[in-house]
Amino acid sequence: MIRITVTILSCFLSILLVAQNPSFVSFELGGSGGIGSVNFEKSFYKKEKVFLDYRFGFSIAPVDKNNGTVLVFPIMIHGVYGENQHKLDLGIGQSISVTTKGSAFVLMPLSIGYRLQPEDKNYYLRLSYTPLVSYLYGTQWQHWAGFTYGIKLNKNK
Predict the structure, then answer these.
(1) Which residues contact 66 (CB under 8 A, 6 or more apart)?
(2) Nearest 5°: phi and psi at 154?
(3) For a designed S-S bond to 111, which of 40, 42, 91, 153 qualifies (C-beta 3.0 to 4.6 A apart)?
(4) Is the dihedral of CA 114, 118, 124, 125 positive or negative?
């Protein structure tokens, strides 16, 4: 079973890495994953000054003795606008969290920020205001911020 899972994941990652649009692995401090997260990002639309990315990631953090540790899976869509290395970055998504004690909850991360993406380099930096919105039992905003460092995987694109 493990071999089948590893084979399927390897095939999936190979397809993602050789596709035409840029893809990134990013490390975010704060932001949509809570304390910090590791993410995979892929552009799926580009037209002139605008491009759209999808992003999914993983984070883990201790909570307390009642909840144990929380596993966070942020999933986001980002719209990026700009014609040179300075860009506006807007995002919306869902952050699915599961604790080791069996609790689960969903938050909606929003994002507005500045993205520095030099055209001749294989990285980007993003600084964003990323509130986490709880909407299942009333609406609550958790004011949050994030700093992201992304590394381009397909360097020739």
Answers:
(1) 101
(2) -100, 90
(3) 91
(4) negative
- Residue bearing tokens 């089948």: 4
Nearest by Cα to 62 from 93, 96, 34 = 34
Q: What is the mean pLDDT of each run of 10 residues along the chain (157 residues)?
A: 52 52 90 90 91 94 83 94 94 92 88 94 95 84 94 76
Q: What is the DSSP letter of 83?
A: S
The three-state secondary structure class of 6 is: helix
Q: What is the pLDDT of residue 1?
A: 45
Neighbours of 1 (CB within 10 A): 5
Q: Which two tokens stand for residue 77?
A: 């869509």
DSSP E strands in the chain: the ranges are 23-30, 36-47, 50-64, 68-81, 86-99, 104-116, 123-129, 132-134, 140-142, 145-152
pLDDT of residue 5: 47
pLDDT at 118: 94
Domain 22-152, classified CATH 2.40.160.20, yes or no: yes
